[in-house]
Amino acid sequence: MRRPELLLPGVALAVAVVLAALGVMVVTAQESAVLVKFINGSLPVDPASPLWPKPADVPLTSQTLVYPLAPAVENRAVSVSAVYNGTHIAFLLTWKDATQDVAKPGGLDVFPDAVAVQFPVSRAQLPYICMGTVDNPVNIIYWRAGVGVENLVAGAGYGLSPQQREALGLQTTPTSPVELLPDSAQVVQAYAVYKDGAWYVVLVRPLGSVHPLMSSLADDFSAAFATWDGSKGERGGLKATSGWVQFHLERPIFAATQPTQPAPTATQTSATTVTQTYVVETTPAWAWVVIGVLVALLAVVAGLALRRK
Amino acid sequence: MKVRAQISMAMNLDKCLGCNTCTVTCKNVWTNRQGAEYMWWNNVETRPGPGYPRQWENQDKHNGGWVLDGGKLKLRIEIKKDYKPPGLDDYYEPWTYEYEVLFSEKQTDQQPVARPISLIDGRPMDVSNGPNWNDDLAGTDLLLEDPNLDPLQKSIYTQFKDVFMMYLPRICNHCLNPSCLAACPRKAIYKREEDGIVLVDQSRCRGYRYCVAACPYKKVYYNWKTGKSEKCILCYPRIEAGQPPVCALTCVGKIRYVGVLLYDADKVLDVAAEPDPTRLMRRFIDEVLLDPFDPDVISAARSAGIPDDWITAAQRSPVYKMVKKWQVAFPLHPEFRTLPMIFYVPPLSPVVTTFEQAYGAKITDVFPRVSELRIPVKYLASMFTAGDTALVEQALKKLIAVRIYERSKNVTEPGLADKAKQALAEAGLTEQDAEEMYRLFAIARYEDRFVIPTNPKRYANQPQLQRGVAGLP
Ligand code: SF4
Ligand code: SF4
């Protein structure tokens, strides 16, 4: 009768160690930071503009968690570069897609190609990567070919009272974990080009936030990406997504609020920043250890109870 | 036993004129909008034919409904992943005519012509397909696409003297095990607890079109303008007020009957997963649909919160009588496993014939025998009973027996009364049944055809929170 007593805490400890290791892995598997270049003047909306910095490749994988699952798990990537000025920030997203699928009148069987960028609303802790949670929502920019661009919030809906929701300009009762922000927050512009088997999409939005559920990007931030390949029937949950990617705002020497200064070209940050790895707090490793110890304690108690019988 | 009540419809196909009044009233009330032009929530198909959308019954092509996978129900779209929902080619490009030309054209030798223009983008177009194309001379080559015709029938069909036809009006079946609902990852489709109406919540729908592909009847349509899917709503605002849906109200042939059916929600999944489709069909009627006169059913219905006026309505329901009591009405393609709740009385037509030679069959009397009917029983069985010809034969026998009985009351002919008695006995009907069937099928008044209790909204306990959602104003 001594065996189970030893066995249970043993197993629990092993689980704890594995979880802790996984936790550390999750934390260290972050992308290196992408530098957001400062531009003193208007931001480029043409993907071919020479103003865009060298892009970073962000790997994407098909989601395999919830129905409907992708026909095949495949690996894709989206190239990301970003620039900002005193008021706005622009992203250039480029990805390969052999077929151009654009929503059109009467296009009953057309699923448009699409791309989305997701930002944490709060800066305290990174939200759950799969579109946030009730207490830690995400702000999403969603562009679809032939449809246009939307500024959305995901996760927040079911955590708010009808009064709070009305105050935020949302429908009284949430109908979806992903919701359109009110008209006043539809402040994102998109410029898209399809050329030589690839999409080039420029997304421009204010640097700051115009709604409590919209992220401010005025300081270093994280973002995650997703693309949809319409010709494969991808829509909704059928998509390829990335992990969180760190973005670092290049600091201008002259404050952006001083328009009389000559265009600043020198910057404080050096190119080495790009390769610097940022440790990101997801669920931290120590939390997994605490969980493991708690599980072990429970197991000991259970073992004792068993022995009494 | 978990008793639920559903508003359900039965259509007596013998009386359908194919006039499409139902279709047009439905269109004028619900789908007379941009993005919805090609939608026919109600359509009437001339069969044999490919139906609308083209070949909707061919699930190898359209991937609708459920299949058994290791004894478990699975959506066909879950198994075959590289499907596409139907495109405009499978429906048709809706069009109008450029009528303006008739007024604005300058006077010339030629009459002005109003050319067809697309309702989608206004460009001039050639009409090459339509919602009932095989009804037109242009579309006769599509007739043999009908999946219910087996190869033998196809060859018979091409012999002109054996040609047969019937009309098949179709709406959403408001199924008990709706595959449209199951396919939606956004949970935008729901079946109303109080009356079983299946609805697409427009505020939840994101236009993914899983439902469009998954409905084996192709009764969810994608609106390209709103980017959301829509379907027949069984005119629920009218139903809630005790009124029949407009298709049923305006039906010229008075073929449509609307009433309450009680069913056992606990049995639905079990029966839908019955391996043998013909057994599934029988168990659907016998086990899932309940007898509203059975005291156990009544008490279970009461404890499930079904109001007394709904239980009384279920007892008076014309649909209950046709489907369960006399068993002369059947669901459309029960083998799709969605347990559809719109029922059809199979047609006898043409019933009276004296042209023995022309029809090839041995005509033995004024009313033919079931085996002498022009529409092959096998064809009907393929549509309505998962191929069980015995069920269709039994129903047709009853319908003929009622006619023989009625004739015997009005015609003095030696031996006719005995013949009527014998026909009723063979069909398993009493004289009282025959009388009741005659009244309901032939001369029913409005209040006999439509027995619809008003909707007390008994499940909407927090209307203030549901404001603006799911049909609450
Ligand atoms: S017939 Fe209606 S309820 Fe049944 S699966 Fe199709 S759309 Fe859904
Ligand atoms: S209105 Fe009635 S008779 Fe006319 S086509 Fe429709 S169902 Fe048939």
Question: How is this structure best described in words?
Answer:
The complex is a heterodimer of chains A (309) and B (473). With 309 residues, chain A is α+β, with helices and mostly antiparallel strands. Helices cover 18% and strands 28% of the residues of chain A. Chain A has 3 helices and 13 strands, in the order αβββββββαββββββα. Chain A has helices at residues 3-28, 162-167, 285-308, and strands at 34-38, 56-62, 75-84, 88-96, 114-120, 138-144, 148-154, 178-180, 189-195, 198-206, 221-228, 240-241, 245-249. In chain A, strands 1-3-2-12-11-13 form a 6-stranded mixed barrel. The longest helix of chain A has 26 residues, at 3-28. Chain A is globular, with a radius of gyration of 23 Å. Chain A starts with a helix and ends with a helix. Residues 21-31 and 255-282 of chain A have low confidence and may be disordered. Chain B has one domain (1-50, 58-83, 160-473): Alpha-Beta Plaits (2-Layer Sandwich). Chain B is 34% helix and 13% strand. Chain B contains 21 helices and 14 strands. In chain B, helix 17 runs antiparallel to helix 18 (416-427) and helix 17 packs across helix 19. The chains are: A alpha+beta (309), B alpha+beta (473). The interface between A and B is medium-sized, with 24 and 35 residues. One iron/sulfur cluster binds at residues 16-22, 44, 167, 169, 251-253, 255 of chain B.
